[in-house]
């Protein structure tokens, strides 16, 4: 629909309204020079038409008229005004009807503002998340390359480089409850490993190392890489929301559960788990224990033997990565 520019600035419509009902709009922009003054005229027109019992849903958006997005609504509005003005005068609607229309119009305007604000906020959060993800990637790159550099430096000086101890482990339960002593059973419960093929992340310290040594014959232990942690959360990650097990299908779920700890996206959650940040415990408690599949190809006959003896139980260090891939 082609609408003349003179109608889009609202001046012609205001003059028509004042001609049909004198004094409808007294103060307005007679020569609007920018989109803001044009939008102001359209707002005045909408307020005047609400008093004439025009439905707010049939009124154009002031911000869209000058750009031509509301041309069809504008043409329909002009047709309604001319249709109501066959007697050359416009009748004012009853006060109750005007008040109802006004409330409806204000509700629509409030909803539009809220949607617009949410859209802007989502855009800001997306930009911040992208910046944080890039910073995390640089940090991971340094963690991968720094040991090799320090090892070469130590070799030049005839010394040795001892890499730092891992900070986080992934623990997978391999055995049921039959024949498990009470102490080991209680430790498995404390780690939230209540079923076979359940897996959790565990922070490595003196206390947890002693507990892991006691349950070593019943679990598989290893130190996962950043990539494997991200795959686990993407494919098997579930969060705790209102005491329910909810899949991590969007960042909104993570933000709702951990936003107060400045963890809003999957990259934030992976970084907190991989680096054992100050909110590791909160993030780990938010995550539901992983329910893993049996490994592709099966366990074989040596499931409960130690890994050093050809089985699957015990600590397999960084070889846990290939094992987790078989479980996904």
Automatic annotation (TrEMBL):
One of its GO terms (biological process) is maturation of LSU-rRNA from tricistronic rRNA transcript (SSU-rRNA, 5.8S rRNA, LSU-rRNA). GO terms for cellular component: cytosolic large ribosomal subunit. SUPFAM superfamilies: Calponin-homology domain, CH-domain, Ribosomal protein L30p/L7e. CDD domains: CH_SF, Ribosomal_L7_archeal_euk. One of its GO terms (molecular function) is RNA binding. Pfam families: CH, Ribosomal_L30. It comes from Streblomastix strix. Keywords: Ribonucleoprotein, Ribosomal protein. Belongs to the universal ribosomal protein uL30 family. This is Putative 60S ribosomal protein L7. Residues 1-85 form the Calponin-homology (CH) domain. The keyword Nuclease does not apply. Signal peptide: none annotated.
């Amino acid at each position: 629909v082609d609408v003349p520019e003179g109608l889009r600035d609202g001046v012609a419509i205001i003059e028509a309204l004042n001609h049909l009902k004198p004094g409808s709009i007294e103060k307005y922009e007679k020569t609007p020079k920018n989109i803001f003054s044009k939008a102001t005229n359209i707002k005045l027109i909408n307020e005047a038409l609400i008093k004439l019992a025009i439905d707010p849903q049939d009124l154009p958006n002031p911000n869209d008229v000058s750009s031509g997005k509301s041309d069809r609504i504008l043409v329909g509005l002009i047709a309604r005004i001319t249709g109501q003005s066959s007697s050359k005068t416009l009748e004012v609607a009853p006060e109750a009807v005007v008040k109802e229309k006004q409330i409806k119009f204000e509700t629509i305007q409030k909803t539009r503002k809220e949607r617009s604000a949410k859209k802007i906020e989502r855009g800001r959060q997306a930009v911040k998340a992208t910046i944080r993800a890039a910073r995390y990637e640089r940090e991971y790159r340094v963690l991968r390359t720094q040991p090799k550099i320090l090892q070469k430096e130590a070799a030049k000086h005839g010394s040795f480089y001892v890499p730092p101890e891992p900070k986080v482990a992934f623990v997978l339960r391999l055995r049921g409850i039959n024949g498990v002593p009470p102490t080991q059973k209680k430790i498995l419960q404390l780690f939230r490993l209540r079923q076979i093929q359940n897996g959790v992340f565990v922070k490595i310290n003196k206390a947890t190392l002693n507990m892991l040594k006691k349950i070593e014959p019943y679990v598989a232990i290893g130190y996962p890489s950043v990539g494997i942690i991200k795959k686990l959360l993407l494919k098997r990650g579930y969060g705790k929301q209102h005491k329910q097990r909810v899949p991590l299908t969007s960042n909104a779920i993570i933000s709702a559960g951990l936003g107060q700890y400045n963890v809003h996206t999957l990259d934030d959650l992976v970084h907190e788990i991989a680096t054992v940040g100050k909110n590791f415990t909160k993030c780990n408690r938010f995550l539901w224990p992983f329910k893993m599949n049996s490994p592709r190809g099966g366990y074989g006959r040596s499931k409960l033997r130690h890994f050093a003896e050809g089985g699957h139980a015990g600590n397999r260090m960084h070889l846990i990565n290939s094992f987790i891939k078989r479980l996904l």
